[in-house]
Write a structure and sequence with these properties.
Length: 297
């Protein structure tokens, strides 16, 4: 009886301490202050970039950091367009490549992970270990062989050569496989098979909806990585009509006497805005995925 009373007293004491911590106003204020500071630090580079896009080169050279917009936005835009910078062409090329890479990588990586999790076949463990080993190989090591292959088949100025390699994405296969192990019930797949559903129907109608949080997370990372990719397009593309936004921004140099920094910041702002929009659209799925993982834990 004494032990149970002691345990009960200890338990009630812990509950009382937790309640005191939850209702501690000082702790809440500290947490809010830290969150506000981190938010400001995260947003500050984007704010400075957008403000500098409205300023002249002289203003930026005089005061590099400013939070007050200026009046040179349209002037910077005129200079930007006059420097063989076509925002429409760059935006369309970047959008085609990034959307294509994201869709192919997500669908085929999830399909591969589905095969590694649901089906039981002899070489499954070997294939998974091979995929993990491929993750360790730097992409730069395969660049020379990839360029030689693309050059021999005369596809150097085709955007498809920036999209099709996304089908084989080892890191995404690994991520999707690890998520699917805990998120996709095998009993649900068996029940669908008993009802006469085909394998692709089960994958498209059952597996993919369950994988929405993981898909949204990988979609953001893949889209951002493809949108900001400069290395591979610089190697494969020589036609200005095929240039993506990162290539166009990298060519904003001005003449030998003057560099238009306001124009460069405007080009960077045009490049960053679609990424912010994509994140705002898909962020709710990431939050849902974190909440789902915490509930499972």
């Amino acid at each position: 009886m004494g032990k149970s009373n002691n345990n009960g007293a200890a338990g009630s004491g812990a509950v009382t301490m937790n309640k005191k911590q939850q209702h501690n106003p000082v702790l809440k204020v500290i947490i809010y202050i830290v969150c506000v500071i981190l938010t400001i630090l995260s947003l500050m580079p984007f704010i400075i970039m957008m403000v500098n896009a409205t300023r002249s080169t002289n203003e930026i050279q005089a005061h590099a950091v400013s939070l007050i917009p200026s009046k040179y936005l349209f002037n910077n835009l005129k200079i930007l367009v006059s420097k063989s910078f076509d925002p429409k062409v760059g935006f369309m090329n970047s959008m085609i490549v990034s959307v294509g890479v994201t869709l192919l990588a997500i669908y085929f990586s999830t399909l591969t992970a589905y095969g590694l999790v649901i089906y039981d076949w002899r070489l499954k463990n070997f294939v998974f270990k091979f995929i993990v080993a491929v993750m360790m190989i730097p992409a730069q090591l395969t660049t020379i062989g990839f360029y030689q292959m693309v050059y021999k088949i005369h596809m150097t100025n085709h955007l498809s050569m920036l999209i099709l390699p996304a089908i084989a994405n080892s890191s995404m296969v690994f991520f999707m496989r690890q998520y699917m192990v805990g998120a996709l019930p095998f009993e649900l797949v068996q029940a669908a098979r008993i009802d006469g559903a085909g394998e692709f129907f089960i994958f498209n109608k059952i597996a993919l909806p369950i994988m929405k949080p993981a898909i949204a997370t990988q979609a953001i990372f893949t889209f951002v990585g493809s949108w900001n990719n400069l290395f591979t397009p610089m190697i494969l593309l020589t036609d200005q009509k095929k240039f993506t936004l990162p290539i166009m921004v990298s060519l904003l140099r001005g003449d030998i006497y003057r560099t238009e920094f306001g124009t460069i910041y405007l080009g960077l702002t045009m490049t960053a805005l679609p990424l912010i929009i994509v994140y705002l659209i898909l962020s709710k799925y990431i939050i849902a995925g974190v909440a789902l993982g915490s509930v499972k834990g």
